[in-house]
UniProtKB/TrEMBL annotation:
Belongs to the Gfo/Idh/MocA family. It is an enzyme of class 1 (oxidoreductase). Its EC number is 1.1.1.18. Residues 6-127 form the Gfo/Idh/MocA-like oxidoreductase N-terminal domain. Pfam families: GFO_IDH_MocA, GFO_IDH_MocA_C3. Keywords: NAD, Oxidoreductase. InterPro entries: Gfo-Idh-MocA_inositol_DH, Gfo/Idh/MocA-like_OxRdtase_N, GFO_IDH_MocA-like_dom, MI/DCI_dehydrogenase, NAD(P)-bd_dom_sf. This is Inositol 2-dehydrogenase. It catalyses: myo-inositol + NAD(+) = scyllo-inosose + NADH + H(+). HAMAP family: IolG. It comes from Saccharopolyspora rosea. Involved in the oxidation of myo-inositol (MI) to 2-keto-myo-inositol (2KMI or 2-inosose). Homotetramer.
């Protein structure tokens, strides 16, 4: 630890907040956690107690206004991201905000406006797949043109089970929000339209949840991505994306790891959850964010507030498409600030 470390404040001390606190303490260099805030003061205290030198606040805004906080991590539920982001932008500190930027495009636009008014890029959205080695390799391959142009993407996003209160709409704006960002980032084009189909529902789904769903995403350049979102698959956590190109295909997220051949069978293992599947991605995301924040810059490969807004707009179209059929995505003109 050095006096030049980036001093990080964390708001939201739930599952992700706890993970990120550990990550910063154990695996990120040049940065340390100094304050944790959560309206649930016990949670804040518990997470702060797990990191030597960190203190807790029952008011998250006290963390944001603390003069010894150089940069902020937001790991609270999406519905409260906007006021926390606006407070961080007002103080002029870099912020890494867990997905989503905000839950809808109107509030995302307010964040974009505040950031532009401050004149400096400060916001990064936690779309961690951008740091997953296989997804990075797939993007580089697509950009190299070695397989020709991408035509179709086949994506699967499976969770073992949905948390209590998870709704059919959340399957779009809490889960498929990752694919909206991944597709835009892989292809380098905005999303033009979204449609949703509902196959028959798994008997494992809680009452009222239409699970799985098939989401079709069309980009402005004519790439079509199909996404199977299945949040009660029961057996583990899987995220896959296969790109079909003019001269070949490439798949990120194929079952990897050790392949075991044993009595009467062979097999490998499946990750249990996102913290396992994307452990390396989260670590890289945080290290690169901290490195950029320490020098007053932003990571050009990370998701910006613009990316967060574009994903929110696609999610809105996706939720409308659940009942209205194919729905177009309308974006404001991209400001030069986010070029
Ligand atoms: N990148 C990923 O794969 C991934 C995975 C899970 C969750 N997330 C995102 O991380 C965020 C947190 O999710 P979680 O699963 O940790 O939720 P959680 O419910 O476990 O924890 C959220 C915490 O935020 C606190 N909180 C509520 N209002 C607050 C406020 N105004 N200010 C500060 N804290 C407040 C709650 O008391 C709670 O302790 C969400 O945005 C979620 O979408 C991302
Ligand atoms: O909040 C979580 C998280 O974003 C996971 O990465 C995703 O797989 C889940 O579907 C979502 O509910």
């Amino acid at each position: 630890m050095s006096e030049h470390d980036l001093r990080i404040g964390l708001v939201g001390a739930g599952r992700m907040g706890g993970d990120h606190a550990r990550r910063i303490h154990e695996r990120i260099s040049g940065a340390r956690l100094v304050a944790v805030g959560d309206p649930d003061a016990d949670r804040a205290e518990q997470v702060a107690a797990s990191v030597p030198g960190a203190r807790s606040h029952g008011d998250p805004y006290e963390v944001i206004s603390s003069s010894d906080v150089d940069a902020l991590v937001i790991a609270s539920p999406g519905v409260v991201h906007e006021p926390l982001l606006l407070a961080a932008i007002e103080r002029g500190i870099p912020v890494l905000c867990e997905k989503p930027l905000t839950p809808d495009s109107t509030s995302s636009l307010r964040v974009l406006e505040a950031e532009q008014a401050g004149g400096k890029r400060l916001v990064q959205v936690g779309f961690m797949r951008r740091f997953d080695p296989e997804h990075v390799e797939l993007r580089e391959l697509l950009r190299s043109g070695a397989l020709g142009r991408a035509l179709v993407l086949h994506c699967a996003h499976r969770n073992p089970s949905s948390p209590p209160g998870f709704t059919s709409e959340m399957m779009i704006f809490d889960s498929v929000v990752h694919e909206f960002d991944t597709v835009r980032w892989l292809v380098g084009e905005e999303i033009r339209a979204v449609s949703v189909r509902r196959p028959r529902t798994t008997s494992a789904a809680p009452a009222g949840l239409a699970d799985p769903q098939l989401v079709t995403i069309e980009t402005t350049g004519g790439v079509v991505a199909d996404v199977e979102i299945f949040v009660n698959c029961g057996f583990g956590y899987q995220v896959r994306c296969e790109a079909v190109c003019e001269h070949g295909t490439a798949l990120a997220g194929a079952a990897g790891g050790l392949r075991v051949h044993g009595t009467a069978g062979w097999g490998g293992r499946i990750d249990a959850d996102f913290s396992e599947r994307f452990a390396t991605a989260f670590d890289r995301e945080f290290q690169r964010w901290a490195d950029a924040a320490r020098t007053g810059g932003v990571d050009p490969d990370a998701a910006s507030a613009w990316d967060g807004y574009a994903a929110a707009a696609a999610c809105e179209a996706g939720v409308r498409a659940q009942s209205e059929g194919t729905t177009e995505v309308r974006l404001v003109e991209r400001p030069g600030f986010y070029a």
